[in-house]
Inverse folding.
């Protein structure tokens, strides 16, 4: 029964945590018995079971309970199969979504070598606009996961494609994550490539795209500031924070000590 398999998936994370805490007693139980079940349920015929399996996998990754070897030899291969060009549409959409969500939890090497090539392919998927939209919505997270060199070499060309996509929802998603993408690039790329691209979005024929671009204008401009003098930085949760200069805090005892936080457009969209 699908409901039984779904319930089983919901119990996997707490069982895994218990086994982790009791590792001397159960050194290999999770890797031998539970992890294969999670991987298998990612391809279950029932979508609720697959969803429960995906959520369980993300919790396990977040808790750092999955070994690097299992990630590279079991999890990534099945996601690559599910997101292949000839894969079923529903499976492909789910696989793209889970790839984007897990990218921030994996090592940069794993993401760049195993998942980034497929992500770039999916950005140009001409069959399913849902796939391209997921890629666009999570573009900033992928850039952050792989770093500046891979972003400028592989991802920026794909970002240009998505920013000129015929579906306005794609262009809107790009406008919303523009700050996160810009923050990952060098000042020269921001000035010479991303600035003209942003102008095209802020002049888009669709008012929803223009509105999203105007909302991202301030955060995008902030990426041009020198963090050491302006105190601007991006937190891990995707928010833009402004840290008051130390001398100002010392000179004014009435000034609040808490950081001023401005939610980035990509975080608002999430």
């Amino acid at each position: 029964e699908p409901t039984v398999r779904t319930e089983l998936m919901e119990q996997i994370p707490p069982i895994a945590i218990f086994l982790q805490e009791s590792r001397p007693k159960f050194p290999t139980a999770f890797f031998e018995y539970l992890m294969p079940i999670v991987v298998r349920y990612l391809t279950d015929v029932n979508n609720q079971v697959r969803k429960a399996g995906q959520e369980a996998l993300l919790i396990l990754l977040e808790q750092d309970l999955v070994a690097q070897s299992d990630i590279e030899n079991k999890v990534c291969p099945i996601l690559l199969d599910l997101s292949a060009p000839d894969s079923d549409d529903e499976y492909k959409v789910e696989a793209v979504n889970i790839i984007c969500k897990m990218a921030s939890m994996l090592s940069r090497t794993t993401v760049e070598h195993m998942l980034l090539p497929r992500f770039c392919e999916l950005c140009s998927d001409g069959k399913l606009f849902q796939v391209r939209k997921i890629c666009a919505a999570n573009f900033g997270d992928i850039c952050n996961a792989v770093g500046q060199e891979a972003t400028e070499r592989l991802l920026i060309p794909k970002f240009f494609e998505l920013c000129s996509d015929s579906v306005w929802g794609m262009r809107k998603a790009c406008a919303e994550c523009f700050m996160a993408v810009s923050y990952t690039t060098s000042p020269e790329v921001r000035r010479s490539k991303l600035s003209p691209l942003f102008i095209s979005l802020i002049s888009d024929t669709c008012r929803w795209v223009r509105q999203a671009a105007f909302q991202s204008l301030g955060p995008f401009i902030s990426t041009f500031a020198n963090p050491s003098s302006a105190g601007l930085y991006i937190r891990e949760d995707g928010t833009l924070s402004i840290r008051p200069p130390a001398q100002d805090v010392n000179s004014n005892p009435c000034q609040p000590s808490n950081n001023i936080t401005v939610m980035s457009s990509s975080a608002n969209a999430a």
Observations:
- Strands lie at 232-234, 240-242, 260-262.
